[in-house]
Amino acid sequence: MPSLASDELAPLLHMLSASGGEVTACLIRVPTEVVKQRSQTSAKGTRSWDVAKSVWAANGLKGFYRGFGSTVAREIPFTCLQFPLYERLKLILARRRTASGQVRDLPAIEAAACGSLAGGVAAGLTTPLDVVKTRIMLGNQPSSVTPSRSAAPRAPSAILPTLRQIYFTEGLRALFSGWVPRVVWISAGGAVFLGVYEAAKGALQEKSEARRERVD
């Protein structure tokens, strides 16, 4: 049986770790995302505080977590693609471009490029899930936070019904709406976030090794 540190289990560990982190993050992210999206789609440019009060008055705490399941359903596949791909790209690049063949010797700028590519690929492939998540969060949302008699019919609030509704009424293209800006900004974000992370990690490791040498 392979050990937890083996290369065979590394992708699985990356997936599990990333997925656990994303589920926890969604507990905080989803309420702010609900308020943000409803503020952005309000015809009157309603303030975030007013939107939050409206959500609470209409649905209570549950209203802030509308789309939680669809957000998790988007983030888990995204991270399960992004981080194993990121680690694999770093390993391939390190073996080709460093004398030691070790990932830790890979320059931060090259790790940033791996992060950008991994993020872009994951973003493009999970765009349909992002579209579904957005539709669910904004489902049955009128043009302002005040109730309207002419409000649209209630939209599906589950992932598969929403996916089917979009596909059969709007076509496959609608499921990839906004894929270009999504890929661009996540690619840029992956480069910055993971590049800075690798640079900071490398600096701390060097500092720790230098301190250890002084002690020895």
UniProtKB/TrEMBL annotation:
First and last residues of every Solcar repeat: 9-92, 106-203
An annotated GO cellular component: membrane
UniProt xrefs under InterPro entries: MCP_dom_sf (IPR023395), MCP_transmembrane (IPR018108)
Protein's cellular compartments: Membrane
Transmembrane region(s): none
Membrane topology: Multi-pass membrane protein
Keyword Nucleotide-binding: no
Entry keywords, A to Z: Membrane, Repeat, Transmembrane, Transmembrane helix, Transport
Name of the protein this chain belongs to: SPOSA6832_03035-mRNA-1:cds
Organism: Sporidiobolus salmonicolor (Yeast-like fungus)
Taxonomic placement: Eukaryota, Fungi, Dikarya, Basidiomycota, Pucciniomycotina
